[in-house]
Amino acid sequence: QVQLQESGPGLVKPSQTLSLTCTVSGGSISSGGYYWSWIRQHPGKGLEWIGYIYYSGSTYYNPSLKSRVTISVDTSKNQFSLKLSSVTAADTAVYYCARTYSDHLMYYFDYWGQGTLVTVSS
Amino acid sequence: QSVLTQPPSVSAAPGQKVTISCSGSSSNIGNNYVSWYQQLPGTAPKLLIYENNKRPSGIPDRFSGSKSGTSATLGITGLQTGDEADYYCGTWDSSPRYVFGTGTKVTVL
Question: Is the CB of residue B13 less than 8 Å from the CB of residue B39?
Answer without folding.
Answer: no
